[in-house]
Amino acid sequence: MKKSFIYILFCIWIFLPASVQAQEGKVYFQRITLEDGLPQGHIFKIAEDSLGFIWFCTGDGLARYDGYEMVNFQHQRGDSSSISSSWLHYSFIDSKNRFWVGSIAGLNLFHRETGTFSWYQHDPDNPNSLSDNRIRSILEDSRGRLWVASISAVDLFEPDSNRFTKVEIENLAGSRHSPNLIEGRDGIIWVCHTNGLTRIDPETMQGTNIAPIPPDLPQNVFGAWMSPDSTLWISSKVGVWEQIPGTEDFRQVDLGPDLKYRSFNCFLADSNGILWMGTLNDGLVKYDYQNRKVLKQYTYSPADPEGITNESIYSLMKDRQGNIWIGTFNGVNRINPASEKFQLYQNAQGLDNFSNYIIRIYQEPNGRVWTTTMNGLFYAEHLGEPGTVATHPNLPKDQYISINGFSADPDGKVWFFARDLGLYYWDPIQRKLFFQEPPDTFKGGLHWQITQSPDNPDILWLSDSHGLCRYNKITRDTFWVHPMDFDPRIKSDFSTFFDFDQFDQVWLVINKGILCYNLKTGKGKVFLYDPENPNCVPPEALKGVAVTRDAVYAASSIGLLEIQVETGACQMYGQKDGLVQEGLAAIIAGSDGKIWVSSNSYLSAFDPLTKTFKSYHTIHSIKEFNTYSTSHGQNNRLLFGGTNGYFGFLPDEIRDDLLPPIPVLTGFKVLNENYPLGKLPEYVHEINLSYEDKVITFEYAGLQYARSEANSYKYILEGFDAGWQEVGSKRDVTYTNLRPGNYTFRLAAANPDGVWSPEPLSVKLHISPPYWQTSWFYGLIFLLVASIFYAIFRSRQRARRLTQEMKVAEQSARYKSLFLANMSHEIRTPMNAILGMSKLLSGTPLDNRQQEYASIIQRSSEDLLVIINDILDHSKIESGKYSFVHKPFELSILLKQLQKIFEPQADEKNISLAVHIDPEIPSYIVGDQVRLNQILINLLANALKFTERGKVDLFVRKQAETPYKMRLLFEVRDTGIGIPPDKIEQIFESFEQIEGDEFFQGTGLGLAISSKLVEQQDGNMWVESSHGTGSSFFFELTFGRNSEKISPPEHIRLHPETWPPLHILVVEDTPFNQTLAVELLRNKIPKVQIAVAENGKVALEKLKDQLFDLILMDVKMPVMDGYETTRIIRQADSPALNSIPIIALTANVTTAHMQKCRDVGMNGIITKPIESQELLLKIQQLLQLEVYD
Amino acid sequence: MIDREKLKSLLGDESMVDRMIDIFQSETPGQLSELSQAIEAGDWSNASILAHTIKSQVAYLGLDYAVSLAREIEHKADQEKDLNSLAGLADALDSELQPFL
Questions:
Q1: Of A416, A666, A849, A1130, which residue is most buried, by most CB within 10 angstroms?
Q2: What's the structural domain count of chain B?
Q3: Reported pTM
């Protein structure tokens, strides 16, 4: 009786509701950057259109995002249907669904369906035109009127009458960043600008500057926000101010003491009284505007790949799916904290931090979290707070301590066993760790779980390598359960996890099995590995047990084991039941009645009623779960530890995301080319094609931005497909040879939780029957056939003549190529006629289909011309008329690109493709990059073609070298069919295709051209092959060494104080850059004498009568630029002058610029802003002042 | 805000930083108005040189947004593309730099 009373008390204590404190986990900032297709990094404004696409206004165009890809709209010179400028500050979709885009060159109305723009620009002769082209902000007021703010004016705009009416505002001109427009109470329009604040009366259209600005508010208004109760908030340089209701005065908003920067660019109200505030230069702030409290600040940290990408926030937008989009100085971030099912918590910030490698985890009923990490033992007072290291004189610091389990007792003490270091407890009153000398029987054991007895506050249950122990922490008495006592097959007492059931039994994981021990009777029942019964205990260590009312569950590497408590019946559940990954890491029973298990990267819930799993993936990019690492937490929360923190969640609140993606068409292609639909694909509902359009492709997306890569799709082409085709995440489908007729393409999309869009997208497709009957078509066919006959006739004539001559002459190869050249030439003439005619034809009035035919003729002719040109190329090489360039290029990049080109092909055939480059070869070499590429492409394509299994390797080795040249040996080695010995001789000969010989089929000119290209560059090519085991193609070529020295090894140290006196000429055009360079050199180099020239001409003058050790040369200067100057210096007669080292100073970092610098003979390049270390290293290296450590 | 740290690390002391800022403040207004004139006159190569100069100068002062504007002007003037925006960008650059001049 007494016992059960204590038990009930204990239960009440365990489940006492605790106050909810900092529990929000790490927010995942999804990044959308230039790599994802953004045209430029500055995101001035973000909008969502009526279809659900997201639009970004950038410094180089308007970008449309569908969750996967970007479509960019940029200004095209001379095209007045393109946007009026690519520098865009604002976009706005009004209540009539008109899409306005404000650029720096006028206002644009974006015709969304066709993707075209109409411009509204300032016209000095028209008083009703836009006042200023530099648009900053657009507002639709509550009366449906449009207001347009530019840098110097605010206009009221009536689109229907195309009329702009200017509102006079005194001090607006010269304002920067803003102005912002915002509507307040009584329809008043507020203009917030960096010169202050102006109110516009909606009736009189009068602009009044607000005088009584509080004295401590600098006249600099950045962002503005209208609160739900219509109070105007504005941000100055030093804080946020709100208008006092009924007055024009402002009072400061309390932002607390912690924020360092207090100027805000933009605001966004979210649900639950949350205001997101984007700072000018310190990240994003989450503010509770009802309780006036800063909740969190998210700042940029280079070490955090899941954090915000930049500290300057330009724009904020919340879409209909609840995503918050953050436009920064450098890319877009997307967050959706509310939708994240699993919260990630960390002991410390950042990636790859051993403090976040959670080996074991435990949460006390009062909320304190204990974690064993690779960096030692941590505790955090609440979820979401950073961890603190728990210390004790006996415990080592900053390293892993083997602690496998924790348990809190009714006094709030937390007990744990540290391996070889003894038993410890945390005293919550004194807030420190205490050591308790354990009984001798514990010595040498590997301790696992520790659990407070549910019915006796003095008792702890512990498992270790000696079995299961009942330990009285007051009397220090022990009672041991040894598994080996229960069955002779058990070879060890080693025990790990255990859990109690309702029948006073403890279920204990032992070596290769489970022991069910009855605490009352002392009897035990064992479940051991039995090859006869593969559905029961597997032959390996179990990863934990979880006991429910009816069954016991254990995690294993092949799935989840279920044992019925009453009958002992076993069953194993795995992939066939919906488990994504069978290798389980940890197991725990949830308050939702489900068994939760972690595997490598998934969390899965097993439903004991339906016997199925549901698996979940988190949005966080680092999500490997650690073995055994799980715990029950406060308020029925479950915790799972991983390699980068721990996840916490309330199983009862795990719901599917019910918001399905919106299916949209994003592209339509015929023969793999975009088909002119007359509108953007997302607006197309009907497509008309002809019989000739044989290969058609639909491209599509589901608009849903939280993990769009996990969306899945299904489609049906009614009239062709028998049923819906489920295709996973694939986003295109191609149909070939559809018969003429009517079809409907339907598409549905599902979100990562498998919720499908209720309304599929539907596109009608009409394919018309063949169209042969026009006379122009016949005529054209006749012309084509006649031209080809003519060409063949002419070339046959010549061929006959040539063949005769060939017999006579001995230079058969030359004639062959002449023959080819002539033949190509002869074909080219009529081909050009066909091309010209089809172009002319396109210019005449034709219907769509005829137009399409004409363009096919045109395209085909162009393709044919390319082939003919190739043949001409070949004959040029044959006749030795080919020239090669010698330019520096990066060999490793060329090889990497080649690997990329061939990788898909190799993957498809399951062949490995590897490139091996001798590390001694410098990264830059001088030669003909294009030809080298061509040769290697031919050899690699050949190797891949004739290899069915095994591998293809490309080796590049250095054969010989001089200071200026080196000879490289390339080898392409395959494990293909090899070449029969009798054919090796012929392999490099062109047009040696032997009739009916499959081996040579299709090899064409590739090898012949390659070997000729090598020969003409004084190299040679040969092949070694053994029939059936593979071939190696070799070639040797000589390359120049790059005049620029190889970058210095890292161990070089700078010692400018040891340098001899230097005389340096600085060529810079402006006083700022001159002074900077001079003072920088003076500051860093002790013995230096400097002369300055403001342009190349002056520099040449100075070089006439002075001698310099080095020139620092700005590249872009008036009068004579750096390139020209260098060219002249290099061409000078005097060796002292033409060999003087020149370092280019340039603020442009493109490879083209760098290449140009090298081409004119500069010895080094330093990019501005100059880094002193880089400059000094370069000087040291060029003047050979190296000091090695 | 002008970032003085970068200049200080290059030049060694605060007074040199002050001197550089003085030069910047005395030179830049002229460069900005020359830039506007070049754009107005359609002299793209000169506009490109001036934007380039301003870009390299403001880069030392840590004025990132102004660097972007100047880079964009230079790029567009070089390529002679999107010329419609040049006058506006130059104005934007001007108003961006005004507070520091």
A1: A416
A2: 1
A3: 0.68
